[in-house]
Amino acid sequence: MMSASNLHRRISSRFLLAALLLMPLTALNANAQQTTGTPGSPGATTTIDGRYLPNPPQPFRGEINPNAVQSKPYWPARIVPPKGAPNVLLIMTDDVGFSAPSTFGGVIPTPALDRIAQTGLRYTAFHTVALCSPTRAALLTGRNHHSVGTGVVVDQATGYPGYNSIIPRDAVAIGEILRQHGYDTSWYGKDHNLPQWEASQAGPFHNWPTGPIKGFDYFYGFPGDDTSQWQPNNLFRNTTPIQPFQGNPGWNLITAMADEAIGRIKMLNDVQPDRPFMIYYAPGGTHSPHHPTPEWIKKISDLHLFDKGWNDLREQIFANQKRLGVIPQNAQLTAWPDSIPKWDTLSPEAKKLYTRQADVYAAYLAYTDYEIGRVIQAIADTGKLDNTLVIYVSGDNGASPEGTLHGLYNEFAVANAVHPTVEMNMKFYDAWGSDQTYPHYAVGWAWAWDTPFKWTKQIASYFGGTRNGMAMAWPARIKDAGGIRHQFHHVIDVVPTILEAVGVPEPVTVNGIAQKPIEGVSMAYTWEGGSAPSRRTTQYFEMFGKRAVYQDGWMASTPPLSPPWDLSLAEPPSDVMNAYRWELYNINEDWTQSNDLAAKMPDKLRDMQQLFTMEAAKYQVFPLDDTRLTRFISHKPSYAPGRTQFTYSGELSNVPFPETGSAPSLLNRSYTVTAEVDVPQGGGDGMLMTDGGRFAGYGFYLLKGRPVFTWNLVALERVKWQAKETLAPGKHTLEFDWKYDGPGLGKGGTGTLKVDGKVVDSHPMPRSLPITLMWDETFNVGLDTGTSVDDQDYQVPFRFTGKLNKLTVKLGPNEMSPAEKETVAKTMRDKQ
């Protein structure tokens, strides 16, 4: 029996073919070709039809004879966008709740976002999909996130069409479309839309930002969900890993990214001043880790914005929003949840800690917005801002609850089932936001920064998870400066808006592949006035089984079975489709989903539920899955499936994601690491093998000539095995053998360090890391490129001064059962 999604695809393809065959010839040629210069001359330009990309080769219309003297050259015309097409600056920040920025009623200053809103339009009913990878896939392709294989973050990919993390070739991104129309396209910041098994320097690279699916000429950023802004060890220029922070104290990626974008803007203006550009600017701010500079922390702390706590902040923001007109005057402030303590019930120490967390986060948002403002100003300095379409999306989902109830000094702690208390976090109070922490705020702030809505990131069924502020400006075209727009729109509507602004059609084929129809609708109609009815009449939402559907002012939503910060061991439902109850809201009268009408209008609710099922079948949403971390540790494709022995000769650096077979994973198993080395005269120092860094990981190295193996257990403890004597010059075989006390997850074991077959240290370690090392660090042999596993022992790059002839890692079987994976997965926080 044919599945609903396959049936829809076949019907859509047939309708598309029939439409093309029946379309009048005049309609097919609706995009009149624009040419400049003398045909065949070096300076000639042309626009292209745009429905079939790339454009067919231009015919040679010169003359060729045996001798050049009797021949006539003819150059193909250079392809350019339509006359007057704007530059495009597409900005998306990370984990910013609707009400965090000042532009939408918050207290955190965001003058760059204010600038775009004041010179253009502010959109108050713009929606994302509750999680980062899915939102970004939808933003770039104009299709729903399941339609492009990204129903969840790529780290959680499973083998279903809606969830495999692979943006298909029949849904190319806006970068590739504009590039083939003559635009310069560049991408700065986060790429969380790259399948994990392709995210190393070995590629393949067709799914990278510079590949033919996303289509950007230049990339400066990081794959994955987050990275340290102080020492980003997963930073790439195009497809080459780089470490510009080494030897540069005070370097920060938020500033460095802006510098890169500004440099390209200036270069293009000098070298190709008439060539339009598209910039996709996606900083890591404000996803954890929250890493602003000390100057920004002081600037925000001195304002004392958060001293009265999160409940008072909500009331203040709510009043600001009504004053600004970004919510209706009759909007209701949703109730505070019982699962989050109210501010006046907290201890003085907790209030001190949580205020520090809020100050650091606010500094991070203000800092990120400031650097975005520098990029906007750089365009203005070239005189091109008037003809630049700027779309500034404030967050890829609602505010993040992933800091749990007390906040996190180290995001990797909770990912390994260590739940920091107020007391534990206070040890890092003074360092909060520095490179000595990988921090996140307590969940009370997330609820406040989603005012006036309920719920947070991860919850796709409520606006706290999906409604994000957005501002759009194009001074040459949008004249209602400072206007506010309340039409219901979705992130998939950005691509068709850009295409309409540029004046090019949605392509039918790209690179020989027939394209899925774009599922968004253009927002350009809103530029003329605020009273036009919304052209987005229907939109489904789904994440982790929690779901909703909107139609013509009505919204049906499923409340979560437990809050996303609840780390209990409750079993997920086996029947996700029927395990959730539904609520019903009239959004036209109830802006914040405060008044559930399900009991009063069961027939309307039933119609909405059926609509969701139809939309889900259409867009590859099934099968529904309510698991979270289970999918992080599930098997994914690998270029070395089942590999149990790894052999290295010489240096190797920046290999990510051991979970997908690109590097050895030492977790939950026995293993042996053997290094054959030549120690030089005067002794040897340096790294032999490492993965992870300051907040979780291991290292095998020589320290002042003595072999050492160190495990860093989420910065709370470091366990070492060390030789007492230095190695003599010459050849040696060094071995570290770990016997795991399994079966089980995160169990202890006994480590034994040997030199030339002789035991030099052996002792147990009571527990080990159960789930993950630092995902923004990489596996290295012969050096360390990120942060050290022990700052007291060495500093990066700690290159081995001897000769590493051979290093071998032998892995025993993984001793974590599927049932144990599921149990532990439910005790930990998602890391999206």
From TrEMBL:
Gene3D superfamilies to which the protein is assigned, alphabetical: 3.30.1120.10, Alkaline Phosphatase, subunit A
Signal keyword on record: yes
Disordered: region residues: 33-63, 813-832
Keyword entries, A-Z: Calcium, Hydrolase, Metal-binding, Signal
Secretion signal span: 1-32
Pfam families assigned: Sulfatase
Biased composition annotated in UniProt, kind: Basic and acidic residues: 818-832
Compositional bias of kind Low complexity: 33-47
Domain Sulfatase N-terminal: 86-504
Gene Ontology molecular function: hydrolase activity; metal ion binding
PROSITE patterns: SULFATASE_1
PANTHER family for this protein: ARYLSULFATASE FAMILY MEMBER, BLL2667 PROTEIN
Protein family: Belongs to the sulfatase family.
Name recorded for this polypeptide: Bll2667 protein
Naturally occurring in which organism (per UniProt): Bradyrhizobium diazoefficiens (strain JCM 10833 / BCRC 13528 / IAM 13628 / NBRC 14792 / USDA 110)
